[in-house]
Amino acid sequence: MSSHNTAKATFFGGAAILAVGIAVVKVIGLFYKIPLVNVIGDAGYADFSNAYYIYSVLLTVSTAGLPVALSKMVSEANTLGRTDQVHKVFRVALSAFLLLGVLSFLIMYLGADRLAGLMGDSRAADGIRVLSPAVVCVGCLAAFRGYAQGHGNMTPTAVSQIIEALCKLVLGLSLAVYLIRLGSEDYQAAAGAIAGVTVGTILALGYMVLNYVIQRGREPACLDRRTDSAGSILRTLLAIAIPITLTSSMVGIVTVIDSALVQGQLQKALLTNQDSWALYGGLIDFAPLSAALAAGGEQAADLAEEISRTLYGNYSGAITLYNLPSSLMVAITASVIPAISAALTRRDRSGSRRIAAASLRMCALVALPAGVGLFVLGEPIIKLIFHTLDPQLAGPLLSSLGIASIFVCLMMVCNSILQAYGFINLPVVIMLLGGVVKIVVNYNLVILPQVGIYGAPLGNILCFGLVCVLDLIVVGRVIPRFPGVLTLFGKPVLAAAAMGAAVWGCYGLAARVISSNAVCTLASIAVGGVVYLALIVLLRAITRDELALMPKGDKIARLLKL
Predict the structure, then answer these.
(1) Residue that terminates a domain, selected from 428, 454, 483
(2) Between 296 and 267, whose confidence is greater?
(3) Can you tell me the distance from the alpha carbon of 20 to that of 457, in angstroms, rounded to the nearest whole number?
(4) Does residue 430 sit in the same domain as residue 518?
(5) Number of H helices, E strands in the chain
(6) Which of 97, 207, 338, 506 suits 201 as a labelling partner, its CA being 20 to 30 A distant?
(7) Contact (CB, 8 A) for 150 and 78
(8) Using CA atoms, how far apart are residues 202 and 384, in angstroms rounded to an integer?
């Protein structure tokens, strides 16, 4: 098989399977989180989000780097015909996953109250406890996914993710609705919704174990029976995994720190500066807080926490939509590392460069219209999707986050490219710098009475904008003869900008004659989609070579006359 055909099978073939799986998962996720926000309300969703942020950090620490390292080592061993080495690498990795998962479980379960307190949301403790067993399951789950992806088989990962998502939707949402109908508190309903996540990981793990047994029985004969020692394998795994884990967990860690600081600063502003109340005039009733401050005592602090839960719940609802574009990048990031690693192992430098450039172009083609769409239609989208959120509050937050989402997507793909080329420490340093910027900016902005919660998205824009620019500079230096920024992104940017103008104009005109926000919003999105796709074709924003890397890409290229 030629290097070009290998690249097709390894990279965009796997990416296409993961993309379909992730698209299904995200659709299911929308049917889960959107009704969930509407069932448990903004404050309950703040509790849900705070518990999930803690879970995400520990989950990333225990699973982010090792599955990527495992897929890289399995891919390289498979390329050299070392089947016995593949099995030993998997056993060592699974043991490491299990140990980290158990440690993370103990931290979450035994320290739930302390962790919730650090987040400035004492009501999140129940959700943290309910989520704690999931860390163990997902740790093992990640090992089996890394094994499958190392074989170039992305289907099991996609199927297991769908199993998890369906369980969240059916069980989690049902429990939340049931608890609300029983008259339970919103934070208790949030914990019930989270229970679906834990059960979903258990079922997904069962599926992946079954797939592993089947996959192993179909492996080719071993051409090289030599295996490295367990200690050597573990050292190699950790050498690859630790920097990747630091890079990946940096986002989660920064999010947790930032969430705690934002909520803390909101509460501080509410208690010490009544000028900050004017920012939310008409949106929140401050009479109880005013009376509590006049009377003195601890009730004022509790009321300030309740108000910050409401404000942060609106922000969390906007974050749910902001995360959608970056979640689609998982299809690219999961495929790019083993694909580039395999190409470099074959000394196919041009093939690895082609995959890296194509991955960034594909990222831009998806991220730019999504981010611009969120920016232009922030308030209408909130009105359309979340009837329990305040569109005047959450809408501007979503618009700002739309810009940040573009930078996040590009950053994720750049990090995967750098890691595949062996530059695994640079993304850590760059992300750390961006994280510091985000924390400092948000800490100082949110406390200002004229900014408040609206300052939170600005930290995301500055943080990920800086990280994205630095990452692109490094990628251009690392890969010889790599295409420039204008070559990669110029045409997609023009198409997305024109699409944004069309969407803005369409919504403005439609809103003057049609009273239904849903009709205006959906019509504007449809118009924007048509304009964007037409411009992508007219501007030749994607090349024949890039399409050739995709399944059926040659036929698509002929259809588009590229």
Answers:
(1) 483
(2) 267
(3) 30
(4) no
(5) 22, 0
(6) 338
(7) yes
(8) 34
Q: Are 410 and 363 in contact (CB under 8 A)?
A: yes
Closest CA to 219 of 92, 15, 82: 82
Give yes or no for a contact between 384 and 518, defined as CB atoms under 8 angstroms apart: yes
According to the 3-state scheme, what is the secondary structure of 378-407? HHHHHHHHCCCCCHHHHHHHHHHHHHHHHH
**Average pLDDT value for residue range 212-239:** 75
Q: Which of 138, 275, 248, 154 is nearest to 203 (CA)?
A: 138
Question: Pick from 454, 483, 512: which residue ends a domain?
Answer: 483
Q: Say what the alpha-carbon torsion angle 262, 264, 269, 271 is, to the nearest 10 degrees.
A: 160
Compute CA 381 distance to the chain's CA centroid, rounded to the nearest angstrom.
Answer: 20
pLDDT digits (tens, 9 = 90+) for 492-541: 999 999 999 999 999 999 999 999 999 999 999 999 999 998 998 888 87
CA dist 439 and 136 (Å) reads 30
Helices assigned H by DSSP within 273-348: 287-295, 299-328, 330-345
Instruction: Examine the domain organization and report whether 499 and 439 are in the same domain.
Output: no
Write out the two tokens for 464.
């990920």
My answer on whether 471 and 551 are in the same domain is no
Distance, in Å, from the CA atom of 145 to the CA atom of 22, rounded to the nearest integer, reads 14
Under a CB-based contact definition with an 8 Å cutoff, are residues 391 and 379 in contact?
A: yes
**Three-state DSSP string of 456-484:** HHHHHHHHHHHHHHHHHHHHHHHCCCCCC
- For residue 21, is pLDDT > 90? no
Q: Which of 409, 407, 401 is nearest to 362 (CA)?
A: 409
What is this structure's pTM?
A: 0.74
d(CA 35, CA 112): 26
How many distinct structural domains can be found in the chain? Answer: 2
Distances (CA, A) of 344 to 68, 356, 357, 479: 16, 12, 15, 12
- In this structure, what token pair is assigned to residue 369? 């219209």
Q: Which range marks the domain in which residue 505 is found?
A: 484-562
Give residue for tokens 């889960």: 32
Cα gap 115→109, rounded to integer Å: 10
Are 259 and 329 members of one domain?
A: yes
Q: Determine the Cα–Cα distance for residues 234 and 508; give it in Å rounded to an integer.
A: 59
Query: Do 349 and 465 belong together in one domain?
Result: yes
- The encoded tokens of residue 37 equal 């926000």
Cβ neighbours for 524, distance < 8 A, ≥ 6 positions apart? 377, 380, 503, 506, 507, 510
Residue among 204, 276, 301, 306 nearest 447 (CA): 276
- Statement to judge: residues 405 and 535 lie in one domain: no
Average pLDDT value for the chain = 83
CB 128 within 8 A of CB 256: no
Is residue 249 pLDDT above 80, yes or no?
A: no
Alpha-carbon distance of 110 to 386, in angstroms, equals 34
pLDDT tens, residue by residue, 65-75: 677 777 778 87
Residue 10 clears pLDDT 50, i.e. is over it: no
Looking at the structure, do residues 375 and 319 belong to the same domain, yes or no?
Answer: yes
Q: Are residues 507 and 386 in the same domain?
A: no
Task: Quote the CA–CA distance of 195 and 172 in Å, as a whole number.
Answer: 6
Helix (H) or strand (E) holding 157: helix 155-167
